[in-house]
Batch of 3 targets.
Target 1
Amino acid sequence: MASTLMFTKDLATFLGKSLIVLLETMIFTVIPRPRKSVAGEIVLITGAASGMGRLLALSFARLGAVVVLWDINKEGNEETCRMAREAGAVRVYAYTCDCSRREEVYRVAEQTYKCFLPAMIAKEHGHLVCISSSAGLVGVNKLADYCASKFAAYGFAESIFMETAAQKLKGIKTTIVCPFFVNTGMFEGCSSKRPFLLPILKPEYVVAKTIDAILQEKVYLYVPRLIYFMMFLKSILPVKIAVLLADFMGVFNVMDGFIYKNKKN
């Protein structure tokens, strides 16, 4: 009897809270969600020497954030630092760091933050942003290694989000970004069979969408919006139809024209 009453109470609480969330979602679908200010906030950007990392650094600089730049490319990172100052950064710092090596991360962290998430938890303030990929949502032909890394990044970020939610740390936000292929040079030669549905994206567009998602404290951002629908179809369609859809969209052949670049050379 007691367990039945507890279940009924929990179910009623769940349904009531769900209704409130649905109403809130409907309201903010019509009315733009308020954007928070990041002026004076410390923003750490990894991979800041080029591409989307550089563009994100410049965007946050214009918003008045204190920008901390990490990259293994010292020259490119210092160039981003110079550009950020010109863009209006109040304070900007560049550090050479190979984020694939744990000891490097901790060495540089000594100069910036002793630690990250524990400090955020202590202050209950912070925002974690993960740049994953649409390749972190669905497997892609000839891209198994990259997909594996992006699936891992997505899963890690989502797990951290769930941990902070379970601990009711409302001041710590998470944003997970999953764009289609971005024209940064990493996937030179790749093409889309249906560019009117899944275009190769300009980095400036993805960065603008990312900044907007961060300021609105969105948890998930898929670019373009069609990816939301495709993920819904993936979850409900029979596997064989999903494979047919992937073939129709050209997912099997997106890497056919890829131009491999050996960074060591």
Target 2
Amino acid sequence: MASADRNYDVFLSFRGEDTRKNFSDHLYTTLIANGIHTFRDSEELDKGGDIASELSRVIQKSRIFIIIFSRNYATSKWCLNELVKITERMTQKESTIHPVFYHVNPSEVRHQSGSYGEAFSNYEKDADLEKENIVKWRAALTQVGNLSGWHVDNQ
């Protein structure tokens, strides 16, 4: 059965290069081991499918979203577009977002400063092409950055 045909308890959103081989992997494994039906792109997407439309369908069928904000999360337009879809989903139906601030200060996400500010400086160089997206990305980061979540750092 295609992943988009199933409902998920949890949808994990993360920047693969930052957390796939450590935090995200451990979290995913723990959720699955405890019987929580969890979506993670590398495990659940059908090979050869239309990734963007399949992810949109999966987001619509998920109830809980765990967003793992890491240093390079905002450098990925894919992650930012996914975040916009998740925040739209939150306003449409009963769902919850649980942010995890992984080695990043929540205020960097909320205010797009630090590494998030650097990413947006790069996007704004092509503002004519990205203007509408930049507004949506900033709004989604601010919205989710204002939610209570978990702050994970080296301590």
Target 3
Amino acid sequence: MNLSFFDQFSSPCLLGIPLILLSMLFPTLLLPSPNSRWITNRLSTLQSWCIDLIAKQLMTPLNKNGHKWALILTSLMIFLLLINLLGLLPYTFTPTTQLSMNMALAFPLWLATLLTGLRNQPSTSLGHLLPEGTPTPLIPALILIETTSLLIRPLALGIRLTANLTAGHLLIQLISTASTTLLSIMPAVSILTTTILLLLTILEVAVAMIQAYVFVLLLSLYLQENI
């Protein structure tokens, strides 16, 4: 029984070929292609409004040097947002429940922010490892602690996204299984469980949006430290 709960997190295969790449590319099909017309439809207008809003929220804390990352961070935000929301649909697969994929997104981008700081302002970036006014006996310990906290940042990014989405999907499946089982035994309890399931689904929609925003927001904060 426990194995069936985690089957939803295994990558689907067709003729032995993993379909995770197809599920990652599918959200791009939902975005309307840009055109040169002055008057567009409502979907294109809504898409432009959302992109402008996301870009404004992410770029406000950054200076002009950080605005070069606007395209990368905004595209990542929309990508994670669509994947997380589509994963809540029945009989779908959520690639962001895979730690390997989240680490593949978090590690290169975190490393890029770190290398940017080391290239542009090496003294300031290295100065983050040792707070000002530290007593001399504590310098080796603090450097070790700050270095460790710096290196676990990409791991924390990937695990946070994976754990939150995995927990939400498991809760939805557990409650839906209980609701179906209790339908013939205790209909009143089953109706109450279904109501809780609907509320939980609404909560998971909010969690999917918040986790995508937090992932990109933390990357922008790491970038802010290095520019």
